[in-house]
Known about the structure:
The structure holds 2 protein chains of 2 kinds.
Chain A: H1 15-18, H2 20-40, H3 42-66, E1 72-74, E2 77-79, E3 84-86, H4 94-106, H5 111-142, H6 147-175, H7 177-185
Antiparallel strand pairs in A: 1-2, 2-3
Helix pairs in contact in A: 2-4, 3-5, 4-5, 4-6, 5-6
Chain B: H1 3-42, E1 49-53, E2 60-65, E3 74-79, H2 81-84, H3 87-95, H4 102-134, H5 138-143, H6 146-176
Antiparallel strand pairs in B: 1-2, 2-3
Helix pairs in contact in B: 1-3, 1-4, 3-4, 3-6, 4-6
Amino acid sequence: MPKPPAPSPTAPRPPWHRRPEVRFLAVFLALLAAGFALVAWNPVNDRVIEPFTAGIAVVSGATLDLIGQDVTMRGTVIRGPRFTVNIRNGCNGVEAMLIFLAAVLAFPAPWKARAIGLALGVVAIQAVNLVRVVALFLTGAYLPDLFDASHTVVWQSVVILAAVLLWILWADRLAVPRRRAAEDAA
Amino acid sequence: MDVRRFLRNLLLAIVPVYAVWTLVTPAYTRVVIAGGRTLVRVAESPNVTRLLPAYQDPNYAWIDRLDFPPSRRRVSSFRVTDLHFHLVLLGALFLAVPGISWRERLAPLGWALLVAFGFHLVLVLFWVKFIYATQLGAWSAEHYGAFGRNFWGLGKHLLDLPVKLALPFALWAAFHVRRLLPRRPAAPE
């Protein structure tokens, strides 16, 4: 069977080749939609997300114990003498992880760089989320008037911002090493 | 893009942007409630929903239904600032881009704010319909079928959590991700 002719270098390319930012955005949004649809699906939510959230509650409870808070655990509920918090969807860092994952996979980069970025990014986002849960528990216990604003405005923004910054760092340092090397040499 | 300068700019921008958001929040919340009320009325017939700022706390919106008995007219409320707090993130990300003129920073920010405003109105609509479809007990079950309850419930969940949180980055990427993408080799002359 004859091979199809190779495209001419002067032939017009499709828009997503000429505009890689359009391709990035389209793939990012598609992956994001797929990711959120997947985690919203009941079987995935019940078998993956809920146990994962319970695990976050256990780690957060252990951390609060370490810093001297006398807490008890029941499922995703952390109960202390002054405050009780229930770790639910939205407090488990999954949204930030999915945004980070979609951005890493949509960005043109070698698969090795993507794998390193995903592994480090997920750990870092969960570390920030752990700080968030512990800080929110302490805010609820000692500064209850500030809890609502901290819960929504401050800490949701901080976790998403952490994911965005981690992605920007990854894209600049790991995903495009040749460009950086060239810029550094210049 | 110089990432160090981006991070420095972000740290410098986030507190002033938060202060501006706090200052404009009372007025913006009223605008979102008024725009949301218009959108809800477009989506319903007859027009029975009254959406208005809560007088005890102007960050909240009350949802009244005029076809309910007066004692049960106030069906629910929700905090409108929760819908638009991501503007802080959006503003800081757009203002932090280094090495470009203020015009190049502010024009994309203006477009992004316009898109975000449209998103806030749609989110208000989904909040109201979510409450009608799933939160009013027997009345919800009588007036909304399984598809309606799932559509408004899932729609509100997706818009209010993942889409709301991802929107600042998606809008920033739409305008500025090319600064991070690898440069293509120049075409041969």
